[in-house]
Amino acid sequence: MLKYLLILCLALVGGSGCHDNGETVITLETSAEEVRQEYGIPGLAIAVVDSDGIREMAHLGVRERISGTPIQANDRFHLGSNGKAITGFIAARLVEAGLLNWDTRFFDLYPELLAEADPVYHSMTLAELLSHHAGIQPFTDGDAASDIEWSEDWAGAAGVLLALPGVEPAAGQTYVYSNAGYTLAAMMLERATGQSWQSLLENQFNLLLGINLRVGWPSDLSVNQPWGHFESRPGVLSETPPGDNEFRLPYLLAPAGDLNLSLEEYAAFVRANLRGLQGDSNYLSPDSWQYLHTAYPDYAIGWGTVVYEGKTYSTHDGSAGTFYCRVAIGRDGNKALIIMVNAVSERVIKGVDQLTLAWLEGMF
């Protein structure tokens, strides 16, 4: 680790600048651009956030390689599974409103689906679905998801999901990560409120935070938004142009990971989490914010837990195959990191890892 940090420091000296005492100053933008070029990342947006707002931010690279149009400050990125924390936030809002509880059982709201469901699911609760402790089949693989007739008829698809056998955690694990579990949780929110999932996104998130969160890919809104890139053959990234393609997610999985917004908008949500963890009542009570991040030891409500050098972080990575998003929130301090890129490959993720490590080590 130390060897890597020294190498990175030396690599960045040329464009970093110095204090009068000769100490190297490594800026966020310099670090991110160096990593972006080294790892062949087409476009990258990165921000360091605290409870007061964005401390540093950079938008680098291109929307897509065909035109070479630069990434702009208001460009949108796909969140992938980082959208789960947003679903959890909306659930917390409804719990505080008294419309349901964390221990409300799925079949309390959908008794008509009980008869055909595997008995292992009969007592599963909202909190268990959102924390991946309900044993629902994962549906984290695109091929597996295609085995079900996905549509906007969520109840019909849920009947099929619930007839599948439950899944036990792998050895050494405490939960089974499930995208489909978030669909069932969103169904509970719909039934409790009488509102559609899209209406809940608008009323309990967008209007509340002043954010323009949208379902689907950024290019669904405009061809001039960033396109995703995937590794079409070893070492080669190819664009995914607007329209239908193999990476498009069924609408049913939107609550689990098919949302897009800009870096600045995502930073506003992350800042709200930071403030909540510090005890501020913003959009939710401090107790609710703590619950979202700590309800379960390894994975709470849309947030995983990582301990690095004695400090605890709420983290999540998200990707549907062509964008990659990472967020890390320091629970022991007032800081957070957001990295959003418009490509996915092992090499790209290594670049994200290096930027994350540099931030953890206090290099920017």
Brief synopsis:
By secondary structure, the protein is of the alpha+beta class.
Overview of the structural elements:
The protein has 364 residues and is an alpha+beta fold. The chain has 14 helices and 11 strands. It has helices at residues 2-16, 28-38, 84-96, 106-109, 126-130, 142-145, 154-163, 179-193, 197-209, 218-221, 254-257, 263-277, 286-294, 346-360; strands spanning 43-50, 53-61, 76-78, 214-215, 228-233, 236-240, 259-262, 304-308, 311-318, 324-330, 335-341. The strands form 3 sheets. It has a 6-stranded antiparallel β-sheet with strand order 2-1-11-10-9-8, with helices on both faces. Strands 3-7-4 form a 3-stranded antiparallel β-sheet. Helix 3 runs parallel beside helix 8. The longest helix has 15 residues, at 2-16. The two termini are 16 Å apart. Residues 1-24 have low confidence and may be disordered.
